[in-house]
Amino acid sequence: DASTFKSDFKTLLSVGKAAGNPLTGAKRMLSIAANGRRFLKDSRYTISFLAEGNTRQALKAQLRAIRAAVGKNGYEIPNTMAVVTRANPFPDPMVLGPGGRRLLPMHGIVPYSAAESLHAEVEKYIDSQKQACERLGIDVFLVYATLGRSGFLYELVIYWPDDWNMLHKATLPDELLSLMQEGEAKEETRQLVDDMKTRFVDIMYDAGSAHLQIGRLYPYARDRNPAALALLRKIKQEVDPAGLINPGALGI
Questions:
Q1: Taking CA atoms, which of 27, 47, 148, 171 is between 20 and 30 Å from 100?
Q2: pLDDT band, very low/low/confident/very high, at 3 (cuts 50, 70, 90)
Q3: Where does residue 21 rank: exposed (0-12), middle (13-18), buried (19+ CB within 10 A)?
Q4: Any idea of the CA torsion for 175, 179, 185, 191, to the nearest 10 degrees?
Q5: What secondary structure, in 3-state letters, does the chain show?
Q6: What distance, in Å, lies between the first and last C-alpha atoms of the chain?
């Protein structure tokens, strides 16, 4: 497909330009072209490691330690995904998921000691909704990242078929939209997605998680000091007396 080729070629060029010198750039571009995405075909899970060292020897030692830790529990794949991400860390915003489905990400950061119980609660709830999700075409994917020794970032992404709004159509470039198919809006599907969103937020809240966003999704006002919340609502009333700015956001 011409649109796919154009998008992939653009990505390939960005990798070459970001390499630092022509020889390294050419090697990386050849590696990406040779390996493509085939290595993802049979992979249920992938893990990316970031290794740093002051010297080449130190870096190699870290890589050996990582390989030894993984052992026979996995196999090493080409680092093309990391190379592409480094070359293009801020791609076109993916406001739609694969195939054109709507998506909703949400996350919580918990201590390592709470990660297992958090995951168990999420899995328990997903299992309870499995039949309805399969019938309505709803999927939930999990992404996680470790934050040094301080925290475990747990992110859920809900995907579901739905129609597109003006933001989706205005944000994504035409070559990406041409590869996608708009879904059909169904009230039952939207209601279940909304219920799942609320339940996931409550599970993460009960686990004592922190997060990196406020926006509309997270219960900002739930645990605020009453006096501080009253002041915030007073300020909101003063600057937005008609309630036109993000009505309902933050719970204020």
A1: 47
A2: very low
A3: exposed
A4: -100
A5: CHHHHHHHHHHHHHHHHCCCCHHHHHHHHHHHHHHCCHHHCCCCCCCCCCCCCCCHHHHHHHHHHHHHHHHHHCCCCCCHHHHHHHHCCCCCCCCECHHHCEEEEEEEEECHHHHHHHHHHHHHHHHHCHHHHHHHCCEEEEEEEEECCCEEEEEEEEEECCCCCHHHHHHCCHHHHCCCCCCCCCHHHHHHHHHHHHHHHHHHHHCCCECCCCCCCCCHHHHCCHHHHHHHHHHHHHHCCCCCCCCCHHHC
A6: 48
Q: Name beta bridge partners: 108.
A: 154
pLDDT tens profile 152-165: 999 999 999 999 99
Residues 189 and 136: beta-carbon distance below 8 Å: yes
pLDDT in tens, 164-205: 999 888 888 887 888 889 999 999 999 999 999 999 999 999
Q: What value does the mean pLDDT take over residues 106-119? A: 94
